Structures
1.
Amino acid sequence: MRLEQADISSLFSNTQIPDIFFSEYLSGANGDFVKVYLYMLFLSKYDKDIKVNDLSKKLVLPLKTIQDAVKYWEEQGVITKKNTGYIINSLQEIELHKLYKPKTALSVEQLQKSQENQQRAKAIEHINNKYFSGLMPTTWYPDIELWFKKYNFDEEVMIALFGYCFDRSALHKAYIQRVAEAWFKNNIKTFNDLDNYYEKQEKVKMIANTISKKLGLHRALSEYEYGYVEKWTIDFAYSFDVIEIALKKTTSKANPNFDYLNKLLSDWHDRGFKTPTEIQNFLTEMKQKNRNVQKLEKSTGYSKYDQREYDNLNSLYANLNY
């Protein structure tokens, strides 16, 4: 694998790393990948030939890690594959191209100066000063403008978005984009929308923790289990008083699980039940129905349980602990 760069006249020269690497690439890259890139950058000054196996031994990294790192930097456009090896590209040129391209797209739809534009400019400047210490790379500006257009966030939500990611030490574009998508899917546009979303999420978190304790799980819920709790709490608008009724009905089950809980709660929601009283009355009726069935079986001498035909409802509530 041959690595090439612009002509280097002195063997004892320094290996220069452009600032754009630290502001645009460092936070999103795996530590081992950074290690591979820096060594490749060093070797490229001397137009060196090096095999992947030798690179693996030199850096004390598994061969697959070297291969994954090379693939990663190639996908980022930082290096370019040639027949004889790779070229280490200029990061400044890459970012200049990114900066030029979106600004060209925006200039076609450029609006007249307005109060909205001025407010957005102030919001972006606030983000720059608070989360980048006034050193936000210029490539972020058109991205923020495009996020404003794509998600229709107001200025306070955009600032809160950066604050959320900053607090999680994840202030890079890929993560910000994922969070923005999640907020957009939850119809967040104004700060009031965001406040309501946080309130709902806090309620879900509290109920999830309580469910985990009630079931004796001694662990945090999985992503899918947590999704069920969000469904019951937000979509069904059920309080823990209702969910607890379902939890108590699992005591007769050898292996109670969230699928079974979801079937119970979904059935109650489909029936339009909203309060614990409505559900308890329904369960009492189901209890009496099951007793009548058992009494009829006893009087007729028909007790072959496995031959009875149950519909989905009877299967759900059969042998339920009341």
Note: Residues 103-109, 304-311 have pLDDT under 50 and may be disordered.
2.
Amino acid sequence: MGKYIFNNHALLDTKEGVLKSGFQVLVEDNRILEVKKGQINSADAETIDLGGRTLMPGLIDCHAHVFISGFKDNQSVLPSEMTARSSNYLRDMVQRGFTTIRDAGGADYGHKMSVENGYFKGPRMFVSGRILSQTGGHGDHRGKADFCSCMNASMGVARIADGVDAVRHAVREEIRHGADQIKIMAGGGVSSPADELHHLQYSTDEIIAIVDEARRAGRYVMSHVYNTDGIRRAVECGVRTIEHGNFLDDKTAEVMAKHSAFLVPTLVTYRADAKYGPSFGWSKDSERKNQEVLEAGVQSLEIAMRAGVKVGYGTDLCWSPKTYQPEGLLVHNEVMSPAEAIKNATIINAEIVRMENQLGVITPGALADLLVIDGDPTQDLGVLQNEGEHMPMIMANGNFAKNELS
């Protein structure tokens, strides 16, 4: 870390969605100290001329997966190898400009601290630990003919817990292990073999108990769920963020807005999985279910926006290439402006991880997560694609993850 003045740039104000000229930004260690129209005087700071490029905050992915086995691994890959894989995923994410991620199940406190302590290069992490699933739910990937009673036979990222007492215990365990938030499966999923997308999972009593345990420990609950009845039920039970939500309707969107719940779409993964699913071993049922959520996905964004629901940004790239991570912004851009799509992945996602005014903005006191872009992302989100090709400089938590300018 050091002390730097960034000048000669167009500053992206993510709240207003516009570029501003004539500003300088002073960073010391991992914080932004000053943002000033005109010259900043600091004798001990290194000045970096950005050559008229765009300066913007780092991107946030609020539904990432870095610790997950291959779809055909069939429980044969040990956690040590999965952690080695995760180090590569994390390094690549920050090189794409994602300086913060919320891992949606699998990664734990150890992965988070590996980044913070410098063992791994990667983004800031908010981890969920293991996802909570009922027996036969989306987190239970045992085949129909598998009579194993193992309670963790769920591809290394979930734990099966049934009943109010069991889910309370499971939440307490995940919090004890350092989870920042609790993830549950409140409905059926694409890849799970024993359910359908319209299935409701966990009883209301179980969800209420999970939310109660999380809140009392200063955490919150995020929920995988596609169908609109499941979304409404989860939100009314106190779930704070809805993951996916592809079958959202107007009535349920109004309930979400009333409860100040967030929607975290993961639309890019369905497009990628439609292409790669057969190659990594999906069943015909999974292909069918993926097509259903793919066809409904973009409409859910429009419904949420009309109702005033805050829309974040997630990717959920489990088995398809994680190179698709920024491409989801182009999907959002199909129904909103580039500036609005960027706001989803900065301002709104910062609220989701409860880091308002510290992430997703370039303001005094914010964390020094900065991207230098060749081009104007408010006009063309293509400059955020292609593995950071148009990002000559990336600063994550005050450290240069990439620096081709000085």
Note: The first strand starts at residue 3 and ends at 7.
